[in-house]
Amino acid sequence: MTNTTYHDASAKPATPENFRAITAKAKSIGVALLGVITLPFIGGCPQSQPPNVANSNSNGKEVSTPALGLPNPPLPVPGWVGFATKPTKEATNPFPFSPVNAAAQIAIFFQDWSSVAADTSLVAVAPGYKQEVKFRRFGPEPYGCDDVPTPMATFTAPTPPPPGPVWLLPPAAAAEVEAVPVEAAQLPELPPKLLSAAKRQPKLARAWKAGNSTIIVEKETDKKAKLSLAVNSEVVFTTEAEHGFIEGSYQEALDLSKPSQPGIPQPLGAFQFRSSPTPTIVLWRPGFEGHRFEVIAPGPQGVQLFELAFAYFCAF
Fold first, then answer.
1. Which pairing describes strands 266-273 and 177-180: parallel, antiparallel, or unpaired?
2. What's the DSSP call for residue 252?
3. What is the strand order of the sheet 234-242 is part of?
4. Residue 118: count of CB within 10 angstroms of its CB
5. H-run or E-run covering 106
6. Taking a C-beta distance cutoff of 8 angstroms, is the pair 275, 23 a contact?
7. Integer Cα distance of 33 and 283 in angstroms
């Protein structure tokens, strides 16, 4: 079992002056291109690779990137993580982070796609959805409540994917992955070894099912929570999180009965790759001023947490 501790930057005590500085910096770049970071270690942004460069997947096998100018896949599994857009700000969507774009149906917040030719074909995979899509462009797109220009790779699709994460792969690799729906799980139905009886209350725990996997977030203290991933009722990964607070502005105790809490992760999607029995889970950590996206995936040292990006959304 892998244990990883990650502390959300927005969850640390901060003065209003510090948060204004963070906001100004975030607005100046639109999005933090964090690349692949196997927590708790910090690495640099991944670079676009030349055509036909071989990469390793979670089994150590080389996976060749097609000669399409595609960027290096940021994870130890093939492909890239995008998100379904919505056509207008007023359009119904369950996720507050969804990009608004009337011309594109899928967007990637992170990684440089400037070397990719327009209309390059990829395959997009989401629950009940697998379609060929076309690369539209890479460049600044308005995002958040202030429409801050934010670097995104955008794609057009014949029909929009369902809200949430979308996995993108070259057509030749489309059979490598299937999307697994993530559904809320009832706390009383969880195996006893995954959650104690004392924590089977909505304020103290939340759980989701994705195929043969279970994701559980449980309260540890008023300021800390723990997320666990279990496959066939065996825990394969855990990580800790700090509940966000700002002195003098937001100091609520952690309450998992609420739809979301600053700094506390929750799963958005699950994807099953043929190369591994462990699914790849896309996580969202809401913050005071933006949204952080992470992925739990089988990596070189076992199941690991990879950070994708922090996208500035709105000043707190």
1. antiparallel
2. P
3. 2-5, 234-242, 224-231, 213-219, 205-210, 183-184
4. 9
5. strand 106-108
6. no
7. 17
CA-to-CA separations, 120 to 69, 83, 156, in angstroms, rounded: 9, 18, 11
- Output helix, strand, coil percentages for the chain, rounded to the nearest 5: 10, 45, 45
- Please write the tens of the pLDDT for every residue from 87-123: 999 999 999 999 999 999 999 997 899 999 999 999 9
CA distance 283 to 16: 28
Element (H, E) at 124: strand 121-126
Q: What's the gap between Cα 30 and its chain centre? A: 17
Give this prediction's pTM: 0.81
pLDDT value at 206 more than 90: yes
Dihedral class, residue 233 (left if φ above 0, else alpha if ψ from -120 to 50, else beta)? left
Q: Residue 36: which residues within 8 A CB-CB, separation 6 or more?
A: 43, 46, 74, 75, 306, 307, 308
The per-residue pLDDT for range 217-258, each reduced to its tens digit, is 999 999 999 999 999 999 999 999 999 877 777 778 999 999
Residue 30 has phi, psi (to 5 degrees) of: 80, -55
Average pLDDT over residues 14-43: 36
